Amino acid sequence: MALLGRLRTETAASHRALEECVDIAACLSTREEWLWLHESFLGYWAPLEALLFSSSDLERWLPDAGLRRKTALLRLDIDSLGGISQHLTYCQELPPLASIAQKLGCLYVLEGSTLGGQRITQMAAGCGYAAPEAGRFFRSYGPQVGSMWKTFGERLEAYALADPDSHEIVVGSAFETFTRLSSWVATKKTERSRHVGYSPYH
Ligand code: HEM
């Protein structure tokens, strides 16, 4: 099976668990909840992308890697929603990203979120606070979502062909990326429910 198919099958349960944990409908119920979701995601995306793009090795396999960073979109959404995107706490339990295989597995998850993002953008369309200024992250590449995903898939398969021993590592990294994000979101939820007047800022 092609690597992309393996990733889809073997992380399907982790994707479902993340969807349940995030609960987009609840996050869209108020402006505060929508802001909270973006703050929580920034706490994961910002340190993860910093690690992913800390060296140029990724570009050998994914020449347009630089275009795929989404931390700035999250910050813009947070600012539009009245949050302060500069002083948030960041996740410390990131998936290991020592090799290209690990980086590509992690990127499968981050890039895949643009597909779910299209569904979420539709769900958000009726909420005044969620669109369009505060919907940049989930809109991501806009009409180019399909072509960006296709290119990513092609580059991933090219890597998979060149390094057939790496597949297990790619899949393992995608799994770690999903599960650590779920754990992070769950932690943020617990923090919020424990503290009345909870602030995500230092
Ligand atoms: C929480 C609400 C979410 C919903 C409702 C959702 C929904 C979806 C949908 C409908 C697809 C399939 C799209 C298509 O085939 O055109 C999809 C794909 C995907 N989503 Fe999500 N998603 C959500 C969150 C996320 C997040 C936060 C991530 C990652 C951080 C993610 C990662 C992925 C991946 C990797 C795929 C691609 C699966 C594949 O085809 O290989 N999703 N999602």
Q: What value does the average pLDDT take?
A: 94
Principal-axes shape call: globular
Task: Report the count of strand segments.
Answer: 0
Task: Using the 3D structure, state the CATH architecture.
Answer: Up-down Bundle
Approximate helicity band: 55-70%
Number of helices: 10
CATH class: Mainly Alpha
Distance between the termini: 46 Å
CATH topology label? Heme Oxygenase, Chain A
Number of domains: 1
Helix and strand element order:
HHHHHHHHHH
Tell me what the structure shows.
Helix content is 66%, strand content 0%. It is globular. It is mostly helical and 202 residues long. The N and C termini lie far apart (46 Å). The mean pLDDT is 94. It is built from ten helices and no strands. It has helices at residues 3-10, 12-22, 24-27, 31-52, 58-61, 71-80, 100-124, 136-139, 145-162, 167-194. Helix 7 (100-124) runs antiparallel to helix 9 (145-162). It has a single domain (3-189), classed as Heme Oxygenase, Chain A. The longest helix is centred in the last third of the chain and has 28 residues, at 167-194. The site of protoporphyrin IX containing FE has 17 residues, from helix 1, helix 2 and helix 7.
